[in-house]
Amino acid sequence: MNPIIVETVVGGKTVRLETGRMAKQADGSALVWADGTVVIATAVSSKVSKPGIDFLPLTVDYQERAYAAGKIPGGFFKREGKPSEREVLNSRLIDRPLRPLFPDGFFCETQLIASVISIDRGGISDVMAVVASSTALYLSDIPFMNPVAAVKVGFVDGKFVVNPTLDEQEKSSLDLVVAGTRDAIMMVEGQGNEISEEVFLEAIDLAHKSILPLIEAQEKLRMMVGKEKRPLPATPIPPGVMDMVQSMGLAPLRDALKIAVKQERQERTDQILSEIKAKILQTPSDESASPVEEREVANAFHELERRIMREMILDHKIRADGRGLSDIRPITIEVGILPRTHGSALFTRGETQSLSVATLGTSDDEQRIDALEGESTKRFMLHYNFPPFSVGETKPMRGPGRREIGHGNLAERALKPVLPPRESFPYSIRLVSDILESNGSSSMATVCGGALAMMDAGIPIKAPVAGIAMGLIKEGDRVAILSDILGLEDHLGDMDFKVTGTEKGITAVQMDIKITGITVSLMREALQKAREGRFHIMEKMKAALPSSRNTMSPYAPRILTLKIKQDKIREVIGPGGKVIRGITEKTGVKIEIDDSGLIQIASTDEVAAQKAIDMINQIVEEVQVGKIYLGKVKTVADYGAFVELFPGTTGLCHISQLEDRRVEKVSDVVSEGDMILVKALEVDRQGKIRLSRKEAIAEVGAEREVRVGSGR
After folding, report:
1. Where does the chain bind Mg(2+) (predicted)?
2. What pairing do the DSSP bridges indicate for beta strands 367-371 and 466-475?
3. How far apart are the C-alpha atoms of 21 and 454, rounded to whole Å?
């Protein structure tokens, strides 16, 4: 088994593409090596499509094997289970640049599996999985003709870094993934700390140049061992069927696509399709011709719908809902609408509506993540829900699908750069976006509503974040860029380019292309229009809520922090947790202590939280020489009295220091349980405390003392 290997250099690091050693029964397979990271990808496709299928049934699965990092999976079964959120997101990352490059009419069931079988801290297993998947497809007989590659770009210390390591990613103000072919960009995904449009475009340009060596390596490997491609499928729509559908449907469909309300427009187009099907399928066909299939009529109808919509935009500059190309749909905003939540906002843009709710918690509520590179916690979580009623449908209610996970992750990355630092705001934050209506750009409504909900909750974010989805219609040299796209424009258009940011710069982007790619110059124009649209939306948001509220909801926890010395942690916890349990039982608060001595006290009752802090201060308080204390007599001895100044801290008041006269017996002056005033005279090297009652009384008098025993 001699593998066929091609090596190249990307970002100063060697990347090796290999085939011929593993998974040889797949239609195509490839390994990609990058230092200690190894990804194997396989591509398999059925030889014929299933009857009635009129779309590409492509499945992409990215999986991380625990053994890749020398780990054994946790849990009862000790084996990998359902895909993690990261695996789902990376599956989408592979799918999005590859899917548009399959030929029209190719409907054979196809599966791509990319498995991480070794990993280091290089931090590029996701982009290497894109390269491996493209290579597997390109080497196979599957009619995938255009190789794709992907790289990451970071921005560290004012310089771009291609394929940064995990350590470099932690310092980077930009985390960008770009996938493309030799000639064009297919996909962009990333987040930035309010990055300018120009820096962003520079990063994309650098990424595309860095992709080329990986494209060339795939081409070289195919020349050596690539399989002959299957013949391309026949045209999915017979010309005769297209002619019949066009003659019957052109005029009514043009009128239908001018209906502004989504459901009314959909009902009318469905009605037109039913009428055309009835006429064509019931008409006797020429005996020499093949019978017309229902799916051929449907495909022709949808193609006609696509052409008409694009004609309206390119020729007449008018969109389905009557807007111009750069117009934003009407926006309405309500904040603080739910009485018992910590923060809420209802954001409506046209026929898309998001109910966003912010909830505050403590560090106990943080999400714990067990990744191949190590364990970590996540203090900010955003969950996006897309119930079927939002588009007027009925479906079973199950867990979040890949689309919901992807949209939630995009919105989370958009808002993360404006969060306050943990040191000044020690709360965990959960945002939930329930999409109540949808007609395009629901993830961007989530960003806008999420920012408003956090501001309503009193979270001091750096700046409001707004998001907009841009579209593209391209026919040859004719191009139209659309602002705030509808669901119809997303479905029938050529691009979905989501951009989020503050007034200062971009916080997140996501671009998906349905054609064979776009150029950087087109992206520059789209970004400029996105900036204009973003600012328009931000003005609406500021009018509803200019800045974060100064106070939090009375139902939100209050977290007070206290820093103690590390050697005092044991005293606060007590034997078996006795002391800290006692404090929580008396006050009803929640207490967390970390190894550095940072204590967080959480409670919805601020008075109770302050009481807990006072109790802890008493435990960890250190004696100050010269200070007067009201202490409790714990033990009486012949030579003096032991006085507890505060819990766990006791000093000796010698018999000679009890009064300003000679004392024969200590018990003549004090008894166990008495509360007496004492002054701290000295703390020696061993920590022993010397006290004086007579000096304390000389300074402040004895009125505050409380006697319970036989003492005077």
Report:
1. 490, 496
2. unpaired
3. 53
Strand order from edge to edge, sheet including 590-593: 558-563, 598-603, 590-593
Residues 6+ apart with CB under 8 A from 503: 463, 535, 538
pLDDT at 284: 57
For 379-488, strand residue ranges (E) read 380-385, 428-437, 466-475, 478-483
Cβ(677)–Cβ(696) below 8 Å: yes
Q: Read off the pLDDT of residues 237-256 as tens digits, 9 standing for 90 and up.
A: 777 888 889 889 889 999 99
Type of residue numbered 679: K
Sorted by where each starts, the structural domains of the chain and their CATH numbers stand as: 4-225 (3.30.230.70), 239-284+291-316 (1.10.10.400), 331-544 (3.30.230.70), 558-620 (3.30.1370.10), 628-700 (2.40.50.140)
* 494 annotated as ligand-binding: no
Query: What are the b/e assignments for 399-436, b being 16+ CB within 10 Å?
Result: ebeeebbbbbbbbbbbbbbbbbeeeebbbbbbbbbbbb
Name the residue with higher pLDDT: 81 or 152. Answer: 152
Provide Rg for the chain, Cα atoms. 34
Structure tokens at 650: 């006791």
pLDDT digits (tens, 9 = 90+) for 29-46: 999 999 999 999 999 999
The pLDDT value recorded for residue 28 is: 97
Helix (H) or strand (E) holding 199: helix 197-225
Nearest to 153 by CA among 127, 131, 130, 134: 127
From residue 78, how far is each of 70, 71, 75 by CA, in Å?
14, 10, 6
Whether 490 has a binding-site annotation, put simply, is yes
Helix axis angle for 197-225 and 125-139, nearest 10°, is: 40
Pair 2, 20: CB distance under 8 Å: yes
* Residue at 271: amino acid letter: Q
DSSP per residue, 517-580: -B-HHHHHHHHHHHHHHHHHHHHHHHHH-SS--SS--TTSPEEEEEE--GGGHHHHH-GGGHHH
What pTM was computed for the model? 0.87
> In sequence order, which residues have a C-beta less than 8 Å from that of residue 113 and are 6 or more positions away?
41, 42, 61, 63
Residues 6+ apart with CB under 8 A from 7: 14, 15, 16, 17, 217
Beta-carbon-side half-sphere exposure of residue 326 (alpha carbons within 13 Å) = 12
